[in-house]
Amino acid sequence: MASRAPEQGNMAVWGSREFDNHEQVCFFSDEATGLRAIVAIHSTALGPAAGGTRFKLYANDSEAVDDALRLSRAMSYKSALAGLPVGGGKAVIIGDPARLKTRALLHAFGRYVDRIGRHFATGEDVGISVADIETMNEVTPFVAGTSAGAGDPSVHTATGVMHGLRAVLERRFGKSDFTGMKIAVQGLGAVGWGVAQRVHDAGAQLVVADVREEVVARAVDRLGAISVPTARIHASDVDIYVPCALGGVVTERTAGEIRAGAVAGAANNQLATAAAGLALAERGILFAPDYVINAGGVISGLEACSAMPGRSLAQFAPLDESLAAIHDRLIEIFDRADREKRTPEATAEQMARELIGR
Ligand code: NAI
User: Fold this and answer.
1) 56 classed as catalytic
2) Does the beta carbon of 212 lie inside 6 Å of ligand 1?
3) N or C terminus of the chain with fewer C-beta within 10 Å?
4) Would the pLDDT of 113 be above 90?
């Protein structure tokens, strides 16, 4: 085979700053379909690893490895703090899904997942849909999020965010309901729309922004929402800012502009840097660590783990109980953060590492 692009030569796994003693990192390729995939398993201390598959074009292979390692560690934290008997892992398929994704490639990937399926099960992420998971499911049971199973995880993520928002209401505003609260939802996609609808039904006033004008118009029309420009939603005069679009939305600059008393939403990796989190804390803005409040999707994906030898769904708490526990876990994190005079995100990471024995 022809030699590959020079940037591949610098790829580091053991030396990656994201490595954090991953238990296992697998590289898979299938020449016939052009598949190149990485499965990273951070920890199986609490059970077999679970984590979605991301199908994405990366600038180079190092970026793909780092992404797999970082996301897989985050899954360890997320599952541990959700009280799930599963570990953390993540898969990435390298390449442009619009160009590369075929049924044959998804089958090839599914067969590799099957090969390590006693230790890893997967589901949707960026670039992988419910239909793609169903295609993989033709060759392996180690997948979650099929329409015959728990279905689209975003519904459960939205429910989980609502439980988290209730914890924020209690802790930051001394309230137990949404009446009279102003909530800014950034991104009205699968999760954001679900959250917007639920907080509206619960009596809150909505402020919304999305790059898709039609969905904003629908929120104004159906939910009585106030529309604001996408670049300014973080600075809205509201009680809670709920990021449900992109990561990295809280920077040191935007933290200084946020007028809400709390930031709590589904988007992954909302804090661009640790300093951004500190900036929120210094201004008395309560932050709900994203991988705690957005755990509903992974909680709902447990049926994939039930396919593993020696496991059954009966070993897991009912879905609604596990989703409701997001409230309690956040309260526990906020309490401990107060006691230890740390940020909620630092406390959450510490608690997760204690749970997985790191
Ligand atoms: P989605 O793709 O359905 O929705 C994202 C929405 O954000 C879209 O409506 C899009 O138009 C909008 N958007 C994009 N750029 C924007 C911008 N600059 N300003 C405002 N809106 C913008 O994605 P989904 O599934 O709703 O996920 C939302 C976030 O939650 C993502 O960060 C995702 O990683 C995270 N998440 C999702 C879970 C799930 O179950 N779907 C589980 C855990 C985290």
Assistant:
1) no
2) yes
3) N
4) yes
